[in-house]
Amino acid sequence: MGKLLQSLTSGGRRRGFAIPQPAQRDASFQHHYMKVRGVRLHWAELGKSDGRPPLVLLHGLFDSHLTWRSVAMELGRGRRVLMPDLPGCGLSERPDASYELSWHAEIIAAWLRMLGLDEVDVVGHSFGGGVAQMLLLERPMPMRRLVLVAAGGLGRDVGFWLRLASVPWVIEYLGQPFMARGTGFALGMARHALSKDYVTELSAMNGARGSARAFSRTLRHVIDWRGQRQLFFERSGEVQLPSTALFWGDRDPVIPIAHGHAFVSGFRGITFKRFEGCGHYPHQQQPGPFAVALEAFLDDPSVPGTHAPVPRHAAEAPGQCRRRRAVAAASGTRRVQRLAP
């Protein structure tokens, strides 16, 4: 970790430094690298399966495997947990590529096939939720259960600073000297109250050469000045949802919780878990309740295997819908059966 910060302060901030090495605090993780579709992909791993499917945790925009550190140990008791760094992020390579959502999904699908995984459970946070949705749409693979955490792709609204950052070419060509410092600034602006260690380590990773290009191209494909561009609703009829849950902080300043409510109302039997007082990172801000809720969903035999869309003619009147959402907001969890008390 000291070497990371030294690189950052001795010229690396100006030029962008090489992809860093795993931090000492990650000693409990097994770190692996694999060449996937020409990209050197890194992932952290822990735990051994007791018969349950492996759990794949996909981080959000310009984040890394570090985001799962607070919950990984708990989740790794009795199951194999894999935390890839998406291309252009964390300890993975930053190639000159399109960074489109479908490209990210292609890399992750190919990686899972190379690992020989026949069936997995997937958790996707923010942009990682969009990658998970694209896995369903364009790279069909056996996915037993899906958890979308404050996921993108479910509505147009998004934080103003992300819309501002999507202005073409500015960050890609001018932003590299500011990527490390900008990480801390952006997380602070979003009022996430995240740990200093996490922000420091992620900032160092985000200063690596090629980060500005990767961030800019990824962002431009999913967001413009009007908001989110890739909406799962527009293509949801093309796939059959696996057992699905949505986890959301009720004070999310990046992607509003209303997106989750709208999505749940469009399908039968989807679980919705609301984390009171949380922002965009419930897995970091409330790691204990998050891990408990996630394990409960993954291990619940009563969860529906698939979710049929609610027919338009069966939709509730606006007043009924408002009343049902008010009840859900008060209870914190919504499904045919409760996820947790």
Gist?
This protein has helices at 2-15, 69-75, 101-114, 127-138, 160-165, 170-174, 179-189, 196-206, 211-222, 258-265, 282-285, 287-299, 318-331; strands at 30-36, 39-46, 55-58, 81-84, 120-125, 143-149, 223-224, 227-228, 241-249, 271-275, 306-307, 333-334. By secondary structure, the chain is an alpha/beta fold. Strands 1, 2, 3, 4, 5, 6, 9, 10, 11 and 12 form a ten-stranded mixed sheet that branches. Strands 7-8 form a two-stranded antiparallel sheet.
Task: Explain the overall architecture.
It is a single chain. This protein is an alpha/beta fold and 341 residues long. It is 38% helix and 17% strand. It has one domain (24-161, 228-334): 3-Layer(aba) Sandwich (Rossmann fold), CATH 3.40.50.1820. The longest helix has 14 residues, at 2-15. The model is unreliable at 1-17 and 313-341 (pLDDT under 50).
Instruction: Kindly provide the radius of gyration, computed on alpha-carbon positions and rounded to a whole number of angstroms.
Output: 19 Å
Overall mean pLDDT stands at 83
Order of helices and strands: HEEEHEHEHEHHHHHEEEHEHHEHE
In this structure, how is the largest beta sheet organized?
A: 10 strands, mixed
CATH class value: Alpha Beta
| CATH topology (fold) name | Rossmann fold
**Which strand-content bin applies to the residues?**
15-25%
